[in-house]
């Protein structure tokens, strides 16, 4: 697991690309400038690691495009110590970004193969999520609720009710909603049953599937 000056240089270029695309949160840019994304990918794709593109990982899943990771992370407005639930651990790259931002991260993955792989890999890089869970993200994580924010990193055909009800007052749910194409949507909890809703354009994710595998 090597991280060289060449990788660092490529990462800085990626940060500049993200700035040019409109990402402004200095902490998010700093996290992306620090995390060795190439180590989250299969060796065949190492050369592509610092392009602003999604790439295949195990179990027919993808590591999200850096712009998408940055965009969702920025919407969360993470403060140190925030308790955050991530749905779709995948490669663990987004998890690592949240750890860099100082969050206490809980992350759920439904594919056992990825869950196992990423559970071993993240601590090797020094990223310690509070808990990685093999389970169905549609249900959220009632035992650890409420959360300052919840981030869904797969395309949801609808907004799962448990996720809304597991938000703290003032908490945010950032979720791409739709079938083939998703609209990035943010819900902010305003009251027991009141939520405000904002939309932020179209993205494409692998689907949020029910149950675990
Ligand atoms: N955050 C990841 C993105 C991975 S792609 C990264 O940075 O690499 C989305 C992930 O969501 C896949 O790993 C997929 O298996 C997972 N997923 C899909 N449906 C799920 C569900 N119901 N619960 C938990 N994870 C789910």
UniProtKB/TrEMBL annotation:
Keywords: Cytoplasm, Methyltransferase, S-adenosyl-L-methionine, Transferase. PROSITE patterns: PCMT. It holds the Pfam family PCMT. The active site is at residue 64. Its main location: cytoplasm. Catalyzes the methyl esterification of L-isoaspartyl residues in peptides and proteins that result from spontaneous decomposition of normal L-aspartyl and L-asparaginyl residues. It plays a role in the repair and/or degradation of damaged proteins. This is Protein-L-isoaspartate O-methyltransferase. It comes from Flavivirga rizhaonensis.
């Amino acid at each position: 697991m090597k991280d060289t000056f060449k990788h660092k240089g490529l990462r800085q270029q990626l940060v500049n690309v993200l700035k040019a695309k409109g990402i402004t949160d200095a902490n998010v840019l700093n996290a992306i400038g620090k995390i060795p994304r190439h180590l989250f990918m299969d060796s065949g794709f190492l050369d592509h690691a610092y392009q602003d593109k999604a790439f295949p990982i195990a179990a027919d899943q993808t590591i999200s495009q850096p712009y998408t990771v940055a965009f969702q992370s920025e919407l969360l407005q993470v403060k140190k110590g925030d308790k955050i639930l991530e749905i779709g651990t995948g490669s663990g790259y987004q998890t690592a970004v949240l750890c860099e931002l100082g969050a206490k991260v809980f992350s759920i993955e439904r594919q056992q193969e990825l869950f196992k792989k990423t559970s071993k890999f993240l601590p090797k890089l020094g990223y310690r999520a509070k808990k990685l869970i093999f389970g169905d993200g549609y249900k959220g994580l009632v035992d650890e609720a409420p959360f300052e924010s919840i981030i869904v990193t797969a395309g949801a055909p609808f907004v799962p009710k448990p996720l809304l009800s597991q938000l703290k007052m003032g908490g945010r749910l950032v979720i791409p909603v739709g079938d083939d194409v998703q609209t990035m949507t943010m819900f902010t909890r305003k009251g027991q049953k009141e939520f405000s809703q904002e939309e932020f354009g179209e993205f494409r994710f692998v689907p949020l599937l029910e149950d675990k595998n």
